[in-house]
Design brief:
With 380 residues, the protein is of the alpha+beta class. The protein has three domains: 109 residues, Butyryl-Coa Dehydrogenase, subunit A, domain 1, CATH 1.10.540; 108 residues, Butyryl-CoA Dehydrogenase, subunit A, domain 2, CATH 2.40.110; 150 residues, Butyryl-CoA Dehydrogenase, subunit A, domain 3. It contains eleven helices and ten strands.
Length: 380
């Protein structure tokens, strides 16, 4: 186990209390009603958990990536959907915190720590894994840019107060011609398409965003022109760590449910936990979850240490290992519970549905293997 100082332990104890008292009792309802849990956002804000990665000057607690990973993990044991609120929040504000001007930081970051929601808008109908195929454009026009385009699958999209949008300012330069902009909810020219009806992670909002001749002030550009792609990639390294943490917590939650059930379920004259077939299955579940956790913590430490040469590789590996583990472990948990595991009266069927999305978002696991493999063959 990773040693923590007193302050870190205090934060995690607060998270555990919030999970026990406010999130776990709501997890099934959030899934069944598929309604965004505004009450959970309020609880996060009240406890300083909505943007813990931000420095104290902006309303955060200056949490390290490792501590944030542990926070995500704890919440995901009960509700990965509730954890996704914090992940989407971090994805939206990290580009601003990383490369935004002092004015942008002072304007938006305190709001995002105190209750406003953010979103990270990159994916498009024709530009997911191949993000350089992006069609959204931002054309300079005096003291502003004119933004046109369409985004899809944007977490928090239609409910976010602050959206970090990626667009081409010079398409001919490809990666070096992409820029990032802060767009506020209510801006003229911002419209919303449908909110997606998803298999899992219900209760989170994934939306289509439409930009039509939207005027973005020059001061709302995040960093210099052409820095958008680099900013996006830096943010995605962190986002993949967060997804890995979410997957580890989800897997651990499924393990806990399976072990608890196997101890109580009686068949053939005794608890099924005494059957070798169940013991073998659960041993694998625990072993794979622990391995995924250690790889995830390694990636978090590299981010905290600024080991740029290894960050991308380890965040990608943590993401695909942990999410593949979550998919396997949750499926096995359903198997341990048998027919009951398939019923909505038990949480493992929800966990299995939630696990699938983590294999897909922030880059599919096939792309994560491509990212890691290419980095490995570049050498250390």
């Amino acid at each position: 186990m990773i040693p923590l100082n007193d302050e870190q332990e205090m934060v995690l104890n607060t998270v555990r209390d919030v999970v026990r008292d406010r999130i776990a009792p709501r997890a099934a309802e959030i899934d069944s009603k598929d309604e965004f849990p505004w009450d959970i956002v309020e609880v996060y804000a009240q406890n300083g958990l909505l943007a813990p990665l931000l420095p104290e000057q902006y309303g955060g607690i200056g949490a390290e990536y490792l501590l944030f990973a542990m926070i995500i993990e704890e919440i995901s044991k009960a509700s990965p959907s509730a954890a996704l609120i914090l992940i989407a929040q971090a994805d939206g504000f990290l580009p601003i915190h990383s490369r935004g001007s002092d004015i942008l930081k002072e304007t938006y970051l305190p709001r995002l720590a105190s209750g406003s929601l953010s979103a990270f808008a990159a994916t498009e109908p024709g530009a997911g894994s191949d993000i350089l195929s992006m069609k959204t454009r931002a054309v300079p026009n005096g003291d502003h840019y004119v933004l046109d385009g369409r985004k899809c699958f944007i977490t928090n999209g239609s409910i976010a107060d602050v959206i970090t949008v990626f667009a081409y300012t010079n398409p001919a330069r490809k990666a070096k011609g992409m820029s990032a902009f802060v767009v506020e909810k209510g801006s003229a020219g911002l419209a919303y398409g449908k909110n997606e009806d998803k298999m899992g992670m219900r209760g989170s909002v994934n939306s289509e965003l439409i930009f039509e001749a939207l005027a973005v002030p020059v001061q709302n550009r995040v960093g210099e022109e052409g820095e958008g792609f680099a900013n996006m990639m830096e943010t995605l390294d962190g986002s993949r760590l967060f997804a890995a943490s979410q997957a580890v917590g989800l897997a651990q939650g499924a393990v806990d449910e399976a072990v608890g059930y196997a101890r109580e379920r009686v068949q053939f004259g005794g608890p099924i936990a005494s059957l070798q077939a169940i013991q073998f299955m659960v041993a694998d579940m625990v072993a794979y979850t622990e391995a995924a956790r250690m790889l995830t913590y390694r990636a978090a430490r590299l981010l905290d240490e600024g080991k740029k040469r290894q960050i991308t590789r380890f965040c990608a590996m943590a993401k695909f290992v942990a999410s593949d583990t979550a998919m396997k472990v949750t499926t096995d948990a359903v198997q341990v519970l048998g027919g009951y595991g398939y019923m909505k009266d038990f949480p493992v069927e929800r966990m299995m549905r939630d696990a699938k999305l983590i294999q897909l978002y922030t880059g599919t696991n096939q792309i994560m293997r491509l990212v890691a493999g290419r980095d490995i063959f570049r050498g250390d």
